Structures are given as structure tokens and as C-alpha cells.
Amino acid sequence: MSDRTLFQSPISRRQALAIFGIGAATATLAACAPTGTGAAGGPAATAGTGSFAPTDFKFSSWSLTEEAAAPAIKSLLSGYSGKEDVTIEEVSFPYNEYFNQLMLQVRGGQFTGAAHVDVAWLGSLAALGKLQDVSALTADRGYTESSLKAAQFEGTQYAFPWTIGAIGLVTNSEILGKAGVDAEDFPTTIDDFEAALVKLKGLGGGLIPYAASTKAAQLKDILIWMQTFGSPLVKNGTVTIGDDASVEAVAWYKGLYDQGLIAADVDRFDARSLFAQGRAALYDDAPVGRGAVTKESPDPDLASKLVPVSRPTLKAGDTPRALVWGGAIAVVSGAGAETAADFGQWATSDLDTVLADYELRGLPPVTEEALSSDVVASDVFGSTFAERITKTATSNPFWVYPQYAQIETTIAEAVQAVLIGQKSPEDAMKSAGEAAQKLIG
Amino acid sequence: MTLETDLPTAAPIAPVADTAGTGVQDASRRTRRPSKPNALRSERPGVRFAAWAAVIVCGGFALLPVYWLLATSLTPRTEVFAYPPQFFPSTVSWEAYESLFTNPTLFNYLRNSIIVSVITAVLSVLVSAYMGYAFSKFRYTGRRALMYFVLSSQMFPQALLLVTLYSVFAAYGLLNTYTALVLSFTTFTLPLCVWMLKGFFDTIPDELIEAARVDGASRLRIIHSIVLPLSAPGLVAAGLFAFVRGWNDFIFALTLAGPDKQTLPPGLVNTYIGEASTAWPELMAASLVVSLPVAIAFISLQRFLVGGLTAGAVKG
Amino acid sequence: MTTTAPSSQLSTTSNKPKRLSDGVFAFLLVLPGLALLLAVVVYPLITALVTAFFKQSLVLPGREFVGFQNIIDVLTGEFSRLLWQTLVFTIGTTLFPFVIGFALALALNTRIRGAKVLRGLMLIPWLVPGVVVSFLWMWIFNANYGVMNALLEGIGLIDQPQAWLAQPATAMGAVILAKTWQSFPWMMVMLLAGLQTVPRELHEAAEIDGAGTIRRFFSITVPQLKGIIGLVLLLEFIWNFQHFDIIYVLTGGGPAGSTQTFATAVYETAFHGFDLGHAGAIGLLWMVLLMALVVVYVRFSEKGEER
Questions:
Q1: Positive or negative, the Cα torsion across B265, B268, B271, B276?
Q2: Keyword Transmembrane: yes or no (chain B) (predicted)?
């Protein structure tokens, strides 16, 4: 009788070959098939300013399905589609996957129209050769110079700036006060900053003084500290990570980590939750975080205790560093692009539209007119944030490289290896710098 | 030792009566399994104790996270990040559940998930039934090579297929359709389903098929009116496994299905894991609500889930 | 008991001339499935593996032949680490669900009260949408507000909150635990199905002969279930070897790449790094590894045959 099973059954070598033989035959077929990705990206098509007949178009955003932001975006879309009598097809992906998915869709030609993008992605998207130059449409619309610059890549206006701000330190003035630190007179040098963190730690109760990012996903926050310590990150196409300043920055970060001044396993979400619960005194965030933080907090007055502060500097008197953060609307050539461009211009610069959006999302607008309007100017948090943080914000020098996401990941993983004690700051930064250099080519 | 005996699915043939016993015609009447369960009449206290200990330890591992899912879904948004967390929420809040019913996109995702998983299950069972039957009851050159190829195809790195699949489906205009998802998941579940069903068909006596043939039934008809009905429990079991594959997938559903056709896993992430915050109570509430119908369906079908495997493939 | 009857006799009785031969008929039956496999698995696989020899970006047009450069990069780079981590993950997520699933199957196969209800309840972890499993465990393991820390602190096992997902050793454990939680129900179902095929008479006879429970377990249950045990272990091994979703969502391969496996590395490299060539090279090595396993397996089983 048979009691054989899969585990005892012998396959002869010939049979094993036969299995893979089928594969090999297909390999030949496959190798002949075209795999190219089409024409190289030429110069950007220019979006025109002349009159046109509005058509249906697609709009993609990660905020379309997100509970907190969706109402603002939806009302924006219905406003435009009502005005021009067109249908806007909505495309949405989760925030963490959005960039990859958008890249895939744009590359494959499945997506054309208006795309909500993070300004960090413009370099990569532009490399696909399908973004339109919208400079003709941004002229004379009252956009601030700095916001226009944030949505440029290699001198070309690849997108309409939409909500441009920065990532900076946000503090809970009440907790700072308890530790004798004045949020309005916040330490300006790194040494004083660290001393203030130690004081905060002294409050006890499991308080995390500074909920800095320590999870790989947001460890790119370390880059701004490297810049603060004096590393340019990239200079004339050469990655400088691994230089003394970057190593010092990482060693300092590791010091904060070891002293418990920053906590393990924290990303932006965690930082916001901890901050909302009053379990962290300060953290890094963009203006977009305010809504989440105040909504999640058991303290109904938290909004009035939020104080943005300038990042401390290595020496007193240096310019505080901050990283440009922001959303923009890019126009992807193809069906509906013309209307999409008109929509982009309208959504980002029409005063009523922008102010209505501001009411709902509270994100910093980009036109002089909107910025000086009562409702925006009277927002203390917003104007303080702009004055102390956004004013000196610069973009990340890696953003100009299409591989920037991978570069950031490489660096973040190296820093993480330092934090968990696998590598020394010197070794980790040296190899991360070399890896980043290799990616840039 | 015949060539047959060393096949992966070779199973000693079950007595005719047993095979028939799992068939639909009397499945409702019979509550016993084809072979009698080995539960002993006289269980000693030691056995009972061990059984309960296993149930408590493993069951705790299984169900405590489910409890935590439930507890979190009932915790107000402002308390959910408190530490230490409350094992029993002091204030029960239904706001997370209320927000579910005002969110139409969620039901869209649920509908997509059910459509994709059900079609995947049906198609997968159909395609693998033909394949399994061809492997079980026919002899021809290359049969074994084919069988091993089918079995080994599930070892290939699926993550690697995504890039090309994306371009292939794009080329045929199948992106953002159910088709792309169904075709992918069906293919990924084929090896297991073929294997399960072949095992099942092996237990169907050749004499039965031969008799039908003598009566003049065509080969297709034999499959449809004799073999498949006899294998109903196996078909259901295979279908349930295929269903779960479609139900659980994240990355293919995210990449190949457009916003309209996205299934629950990417849909839930899309809705609750935002740019600024993660809505834990809502995410947990939504997960529970959408899992419930499937869990109930599975529990009512678990007779098949276990029984469907029994008659066929599982014996070594 | 009979062996599987030689079915070839079926074909010899067919005399009607217009009918297709059985071989052709069988091939037609196989065709739909085969076409799917070729289109959805084999073709994409080959094109992906071919990129291993090119410097090719997911986003930039064009590609350049680089020979074995990508493969050398992988071999001298992350390969050994990935292999080790993949094995740890795969073996862990195969054995733990097996042990838990088997224990539950044995327990629920006795006549304890409520076995049926429990059997149903145990299916829930398997049916919660896959990503939710990751999020749930991420939530449980969270260093700053997770219930795991609270629980362990409560019973005094740890004295301060641990960052489970931020330390390489515990992160791998957490990932394995989450996957275990998801897959033990299916192990339970399969083994329960197997247990119910064990004829009761065998147990009864052994009991009369005075064999204790443990002895009966090893001398009857395990040998009877040999086939199904081997099978579920093999299937789980194959699936876990290429499991993606739970790791990707729970840790993203971190911290510092310590939970990265072949599957997540391939995806990260292709979709986040846009480096198709490198991803293809990882995939190619993965394939070579699997082929090597097949060859070893063939050798092994042929030797077994000779003995």
C-alpha cells in the first residue's frame, strides 16, 4: 500500500530540471519583450494662460479620504466643479504610500491632472518629465517669493505653492514654565537647550522632555540638526555626511537618547500623541500638526499653550535652522491638464477659497493678500510660527536628487544603528555618507 | 510501487461510503465526520485539565488582542493615549462607531473587499478544480513536471512581481479594476487549491467515474455532475482559503486597484492613518465591524473548513 | 486498503473517434490555470529577474547593462544579514503557530464544553484584515502608551517601559508574535481536520492495552498526522519565507534594518529606492537559494530511496 507523502517523494533531477525548464523557456520570451520606460524627460511643457474650455480632470491627494482633512479638500473640489461645471475625479492613497504610488501612476501615464504633492517630492517627480511649468500662471498672483521658491526645482516653477511653512520646535509653555523655562525666551544655543531639557526631565512623572523622532520613518529630522552643527550635507555634488559636524550632531543626539531626554520608538504620530497628553514638553512639527494635537488632547486649553520656538544654534547669534515644509499642486501633462492648472491657480491664490481652506485646515497660505488678511494675521500661533521658524527655513539639499527618499532612508537607518548602540557615530556617518554619495552618482 | 504512490498528494483512498458522507446530499443530516472523531468517551481528569490549560493559555493569546481591539475602539479619542492605559475604559464612547456610519467610503471598501474576495474564491476553485482533476485522474507526459511547477510557483517572490504586473495590467487597461486584483489573487491561491482539490479527487473511486462513462456521460459532464458535487466540502474549504488571501492582502490591493476599487486593507490605512495623526479608536472600530460578517460566515461554514479537508488531502 | 488505482485504464476504454484524446482533454483542463500562472507569476518574475543585470530605475527612463554588478553588491552587502533574518522570521513564524495551533486543535478535539464556540472564536485573528493585525500589535507594543508595557509592569516583569519595536532583538520577536497570532488559526483548522481522521478505534484499542494519554499521543496521534504535520509546516515555511505585509506595516524592516527580510527588502529597494536592478538581484539570489533547496531536497530524498 502507499503511505508516501510529499516529504518522502523523490523528484528526479530530470524532473526538477523540467520544473525550471518551463521557467527558462519563458525567460527567453520575456527577455525579448520591451521593458523600456519610454522617452526621456524633455523640457517641461508650459501651462498656458490663455482662455480655454474647462474639461473634466483628475485631482490626487492623500487628504481626500483622511478623516481630518477631507472636508476641507472636498469643499474645495465642489467649489471649483460647481464654478466651472466640470467633474473632478478623485485619486487618493495613504500618506505613507502616496509618493511611490503617484510616481508609478505618473510614470505609467495613468495619472494626469492636478496632484497634491509635498515640496520635497518635486525633484523626483520632475525627473519623470511630465510636470508642467506653471510659471506663467503664478506670475502676478501675489504669491510670496519664498513660497514660489519652495515649489521650484532647478529654477522651474513645477507647482503652485499651496500651504508652505516649515518644520520647527513646538513647545507646551505650561510644562516649560513648571521647569522654569520661558517659552518666550527660549534657549538659543544647543548647550542651553540641553540644560533646559535636563531641567524638564527633572520634573519627573515620566515626562519626555523632547519627543524627537527616533523611528526610522522620521529620523530624517536629524538632518536639520546636522545643519545646525554646521554640516552642509551636500556641497557641489559631494555628500558631506561623515564630516565632523554631522558626527557631532549624531553623537549629541545619541547623548540625548541615552540621558532619556528624547525617547525611543517615537515618530511624528507618537510625538503628537505624547505632546497632546502632556507627556512631552516639546517636539518637531509643521503647522499641520496643530489640529491633531489639540483634537487629541484631554486639555481643552492646549491650543493657547502651544508656542513655536526657534531652533537653538551652535553659537549664539547664528541663524536658526528650519526645514521648509509644504504642500503644492503640481500639474501633470495630459488629459485635463489645462483645467487642472487653472484649478491649481484658483485653489492656491483665490482669496476667498484660500481663507475658507484656512478656516478648516489652519495651514499657512502663500499669497501676500491671504497672509495679511485679518483671520490669518490674528492667529498668534501661526504668525509666531512664521516669524520664528518659517522665516529662516531652507529646503533640504537632498531634495534635488530623484533618489532623495532612499538617501534619507540610508541616513536614518545609520542614525538608528547609532541610537541602539550598534555602531559608533563616526563609522555610521562615514558609511552612510558613502552610501548616499553612491546613490547620487 | 507504482508511479502514483509517490505523488505529493497521494492519499489512501477513503471508503466509498465515507466520501459520499461528506457530499452535499446528506451533509446536513450527518453531523459526524467521515471518520469518527477520536474524542474518547472516557476522558481522564488529567486530559481535561491539560485541554483546559491549553485553551486558556493559547486562547488568551488569541483573544486578549481581540479584547484590546474592542476596548480601544470604545475609548474616547482624548484618553486613548493615556499611560498606563485603562484595561477597562472608564468612559465608554461610541463616537468611533458613530463616525463609521457617516463614512460612505468605508462601505465602498467593504463592498470592494467582498466582491474581490468572493470572485477570487469562486474563480480559484473553478480553475483549480479543473487543474486538480487533470492531475488526479489523467495520465500524460509532463504531468508531474507540471504539478511540481504549480506547487513551486508559490515560492516565487511575489513582492518582485509587482513592478511588472503593474506595467502588464496598465498595458491591458486593467489597472483600477477588480480584474487585476482577482487575477492576481486567483493565481497566488492556485497552488494550494489545486493541491487540496487533487487530494480530494484522489479519494473519488475511479469505478464511479468509469460507471458514469459507461453510461455515456461526457468527460465534462462527469466533472460537473459527479465529481464536483461529491467534492463540495473540499470546494468550500478551498474557496474559503482563497477568500482569505484576497481579504487580507495589502500591497497588491494598494498598487493595482485604483481609489474606487481599493479593498479594506489599503482603504482602512487610507482613512485612518493620516498625514497628521492615527485615529486608533476609529481604526479599531472599523476593523471589528468589517471582520464581524466574515467571522460569522466562517464560523457557520467551519464544518466545511474542517470537514472539507478531512476526506481529501490531509491523510498522509 | 487499496492504493490509488492506476487511472490510465480510464483512457483506454474510450473508443469514440471524434473525442479528443485524454491527454489533450487533460491539457485543456490545466490550461486556464497554467495560463494564469505564466501570465501573473512566470512572465513578471522573469522580467524582474532580468533587471538584475541592469542598472535600472523605477522612475528614470532607460537602462544600462552592468553584468553581475548588482549581484555582487547584494552578496557583499546585505545578503547574509537578510538571509539570517529571513530564516529567523520564517522558522519562528512556522514553529510558534504550529505549537499553538496543535495545542488548541488537541484541546478542542476533546469534549470540553464550548469547544465549538471556541473553535469559531479562534478564527477571528485570521479574519481581521491583514494590515489591522500589524496596527493592532504596533498599538500593543508601543513604547510610550502600549498595553504590553502596562501589563508587564503591572505584574512586575519589567520595571520601566520597553521600546519593543525599537530594539533589534525584541522587534524581531514582536514581528514573529504578530504573524503567529495571524496564522495559528489556520494551523489549528488544518490539524483539527487531521485529528478527526484518526480512527477512534486505534485509541480505544491502545487504551485497552493500557497505553497512557501521552504514549497514545506519540504512538498514535503523531504518526497518524505525520502527513498533515509535514504539509502544514512546509506550506507555512514557504509562505512565511515570502511574507510581506505584516513586517512592512509593523516595523517597515526596522530598526536599522533588523527585521528586513528578502520580501520586504525587495519591495523597499524597488518602490522606495526605485532601484529595480538591485531589487532584481535580491530576487535572483532568492530564486537561486530556493533552487538550491530543491536540489538538496531531491538529493536527499533520492538517497533515502536507495537505502
A1: negative
A2: yes
How do residues C74-100 score in pLDDT, each as one tens digit? 999 889 999 999 999 999 999 999 999
What is the dihedral sign for C-alpha A51, A55, A56, A60? negative
Mean pLDDT, range A177-193, rounded to an integer? 95
Question: Rounded CA gap, C47 and C52, in Å?
Answer: 9
Q: What is the largest CA-CA distance in chain A?
A: 90
CA distance B260 to B192: 30
Residues A314 and A352 in one domain: no
Asked if the model's pLDDT at residue A107 lies above 70, the reply is yes
Strand A159-172 relative to strand A306-309: parallel, antiparallel, unpaired? antiparallel
Task: Note the CATH architecture for domain B95-310.
Answer: Orthogonal Bundle (1.10)
Q: Are A307 and A173 in contact (CB under 8 A)?
A: yes
User: What's residue B79's pLDDT?
Assistant: 82
For B244-269, the pLDDT digits (tens) are 889 988 989 988 987 788 899 998 88
- Closest partner residue to C43 (CB to CB) among A26, A403, A413 is A26
Which amino acid is present at A23? G
Q: Which residues of B touch C16 (CB under 8 A)?
A: none
Give this prediction's pTM: 0.83
Helix (H) or strand (E) holding C115: helix C115-121
Q: How far apart are CA B304 and CA C8, in angstroms?
A: 31
Query: Model confidence over C185-234: pLDDT tens digits?
Result: 989 988 888 888 788 788 788 878 877 777 888 888 888 888 788 878 88
Q: Cβ contacts (< 8 Å) between A31 and chain B: which residues?
A: none
ipTM greater than 0.95: no
Among A360, A386, A412, the domain-final residue is: A386
Q: Check CB contact under 8 Å for C109 and B38.
A: yes
